[in-house]
Design goal:
Layout lengths: L9 E3 L1 H10 L4 E4 L3 H7 L1 E2 L9 E2 L14 H11 L7 E5 L4 H12 L4 E5 L26 E2 L2
Parallel strand pairs: 1-6, 2-4, 2-5, 5-6
Antiparallel strand pairs: 3-7
Length: 147
């Protein structure tokens, strides 16, 4: 399946991700956070550009184990949607760590344009220990909706 070699995953700023999602018909946003995060924190809203994010957990909630079926299930989702292995895939999590690992897994499985969404949906903690204010999808004012 994979080559066993690490592939470098590029971090892309959230505003650039939004631009590419709007301009490139085959570009896909893949939200790899947990079901709890989707429900309680919110989801990117791509409806204004005629798209929807693909939702698949990289780590399962509540046990935090890496989803052993991640690559297989996401590959099936993309195939059903008619998305080929050359399409640009943008992986999103809370702040950019899990999504980078998920992008790495898909790149090793043969997807050629896996990207990490820099700072994720909520970004890092600010001085008051809150997320979503200094960087990431929410802080950039990109469309989102409560799950």
């Amino acid at each position: 399946m994979g080559t066993g070699q690490a592939v470098h995953i590029v971090d892309v700023d959230v505003r650039e991700v939004w631009k590419r999602l709007k301009e490139e018909p085959t570009a896909v946003l893949i939200d790899v956070r947990t079901r709890a995060e989707w429900a309680y924190v919110g989801l990117p809203d791509l409806s204004s550009i005629g798209k929807r994010p693909f939702l698949i957990e990289w780590q399962t909630f509540p046990d935090n184990r890496v989803n052993p079926e991640f690559v297989e299930r996401l590959s099936e989702m993309l195939e059903v949607a008619g998305i080929d292995k050359q399409a640009e895939l943008f992986f999103l999590c809370r702040s950019g760590g899990r999504s980078k690992r998920a992008a790495q897994a898909m790149a090793e499985a043969g997807s050629t344009a896996c990207r990490n969404v820099a700072d994720g949906f909520e970004g890092p903690l600010d001085a008051e220990r809150h997320r979503g204010r200094t960087a990431g999808w929410k802080a950039a004012g990109l469309p989102w909706a409560q799950g």
